[in-house]
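Methods: example folding runs. The two proteins below were folded one after another, and each record is reproduced exactly as written to the output file, sequence line first and C-alpha cell line second.
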Amino acid sequence: MTDTTTKQSQLTCKYKAVAIREDDRTGIGILRYLPETRNGGATLEIHSIYCPDKLSHKQTFLAVMQHINVDDGESALLRTAMMNVKYQWAALYPNVFVKGERYNIGAHSEVLRLAEDALRRKSTIYEEEIN
C-alpha cells in the first residue's frame, strides 16, 4: 500500500478549498465535510475568507492550511480547485493529503460561492455545526 493510499484509507475529515485571486485582493472558500460522503453531504464547517491583498500562490495555500485542523493520529483530504499547490508546500503537512483538481461545478460550486461572498462582503466568516 502506498503512502497516499494509507493516508486516504485512514481519513478522519475532508475539506474542499477554492481561491479567487484578483488584482488587489483574494477570496478563499473552505468547506469541511464528513469523510463517509463522496462529494460532500453533511457539512461540518464553512470558511469564507477575505484577504485585502492579492496573495501569492504559496500565501494562498498557507492561508488555507491555517484553517485545516488535524489532530495527532488523524489525517485529512484537502481537495483544491482554482489553486496552484506545489508538492514541496504540501509535504510540510504530512497528515493532509492535498489533491489538486480541475474546477467542477458539482463538486466545487459551494466553496466557490464562499470565496465570491468573501470578496463581495470584504470580511471573513466562519461557521461550524454544533452537536
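Second run, written to the same file directly after the first:
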Amino acid sequence: MKSVFFSRFFILLPWVLIVIIMIDIDSKRTIRAPAAGRTGRAQRAVRTGAPGIGGTQNQSALPIIYAITPTYSRPVQKAELTRLSHAFRQVPRFHWIVVEDSTARTELVARFLARCGVPYTHLHVFTPRRFKRAGMPRATEQRNAALTWLRQHRSRRDSGVVFFADDDNTYSLELFEEMRSTRGVSIWPVGFVGGRAYERPLVSGGKVVGWYTGWRPDRPFATDMAVQLSPENADPCGFAVNLQVILTNPRAQFKRRGSQPGMQESDFLKQITKVTDLEPKANNCTRNGDVPMTVQLPAAVQLLTLYSLIFTLKVYFSGFA
C-alpha cells in the first residue's frame, strides 16, 4: 500500500509544480495598450509614441535608448521579436531600430512593428551571399546601416544611448535604467554564453582589468556576451555607447574585412574607446542583469515536464514487470 501511495505521489508532484510555476509566471505579466501613431517611408518606417511604465515626471529629460536589432526571416522570427517588444514597450524614452536582412521591408515585420506599441525605425539591407558562409560574422551590414541612420537623423544636440539587442536575447528591465547613464561606453555581464552560466568583465577599483570568459580572454574587449555558444555567432550585446560617441566617430563601424570571427566587437570598440575608459554597470559587473528569471523559468518548466514524462512512463511500465 505504501509503495502504491509513494509512486502516485511522485507521479503527481512534478505536474503540480509545473502548474504552480506557470500560474506564477502568468500572474507577473502586465497588459499595456499599444501606443498610437506611425509614419512610413520607402526604405524605412519610423513610429513615434510614448511607451513606458511608472511615473511620467521628467521623462522628457531622459536620454533616449536606441536599440539596434538585426533580424532575418525564419519560423521563430515573429515570436522572438514579440518577446523583445514586450520588454521594450515598458521602457520610457525608447526607440527601436529594426534592420531586416532582405532586399525590401517584409510585410510580416512591417505589420508587427506597426502594432507592437514601441517607437521604431524599420530599415533593410541585404547581406551578400558570399558573406553568409558558416564561420563568418553575422548582421554586419544591418548594424552598420543602423549606425548610418543615427548619424544621418540625429545631431550633437540629441542625448541618447545606443546598444545592440539581437532578437534571440532576453533583457531585464533593470538593464535599461543602468545603461541610460552611459557617458562613453558601458559594459555589463551576460548569462548563458560560451558554455558558461555567465561571462563578465573583471573589475577592480571601478576599472575593467580583465575578462571572465570561455573563449579568448586575451581579446582587448572580450564582449561576445550573448546567448550563443560559438565564437562565429558571438553577438555584441554586452555594451552600450553614448549617442554622441557614435556621432563624433563617423567612421566607426563593424568591419567585414580584416576582422576575425568573434572579434567584431573588439574591433568596433577599439575605434571608439579604451579598456580603461569602460564604465562597468550592474554593481561593478557582479550582477547578471541580462538574463533574469523570466528566461530561466520556461527552461525549468521544460526540464520538469521532461522529467515528469520519463518518471510517469517508468512507473507505468514497471507495473508490467
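Comment on the second run: Residues 24-43, 48-54, 225-237, 289-302 have pLDDT under 50 and may be disordered.
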